[in-house]
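Problem 12. The chain below contains 325 residues. Write out its predicted structure in token notation.
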Amino acid sequence: PTEVAAAVRAAHEAGRDGTLARLAAEYPPDPWLVADRLCAEGHFDAASAFAKALPRPDVSKLPMWIAGQRAKPTTTSLRSALTTARAHFEAGRFEAVESALQAELAPMQFMSDGLSEHSTVAAVEALHLHGRALLELDLPAAAQPMADAAQLAHLFGWRQGARRISREATQALERQREAHDANMMWHVTQRAVVQTTVMLGEYEAATPLLRAQLRSAREAENWLFLEDIGEDLARCLLGTGDFDEAEKVLAETYRAAQKIGYEVSLANTERLLSQLAHARGDLPAAIRFSELVAKRMREGKQVAFEEHARFQIAMLHRQRGDYPA
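Solution.
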């Protein structure tokens, strides 16, 4: 990224739009890293020109992110801590990585506002590096910071980075499975990684992990866990077009939701059943399940969710051609 950033800066300063367009068209390993390097050096105009020249859908939010960097740049303390932590990692001093990043990582815990000051490439890289260091130390929660990094990247639009780190987190879990399969912390981390993978739409990667988790929940008769996992697995199966397995999973998930008696869980499963029926072209069934969702949300006084269900019902009626005037 550093070499490409230097070339982009030179082309921009010389007014060589053709060279800039060529650099953008060559698809560097990750344009976000190039743009972040330029922003770190204060070359916001060059970063902006580079981002606008990129013909890639996964960088659609990069110009807006660069504008945010111009208004409120990544802190010097975070960049300095990341540089120090990288040096420790390269030297094999993995325990020192966390110490170097500790002050910067602490405010990132339990993040709820994805568009906060933590929405930076450097913050994602710090979380990712922390996870890599924990993995080298073979700690059971190593993949958790990687999942956090992927979620943060996804929230502010760095899709390529989110997918890459999410896949690395999945690989980390598999690397640790034999040593930590009996460790509860490892299983908690696995659940977080799988949820991140589903959120990113990496359905094929998440499906085998979810199947294994569903078996464990079934054997333990943990209905709450089974219902939660079943929802995610059904979403993946719907995304990959495996409707028959999705139907079986949703039937089991619905029974678990009935056992725990949680209305939101029942509504979530009914919403997925509506999506399954719609995917199969069964509009009457899709409407029926959506009406069940709307009824539950109305009885639970969940106005926003009821309105969303009503909207879905209206769209389904329109598709069927019988929406009332």
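Discussion. The two ends are 57 Å apart (CA to CA). Students who got a different answer should revisit the alignment rule from Section 12.3.
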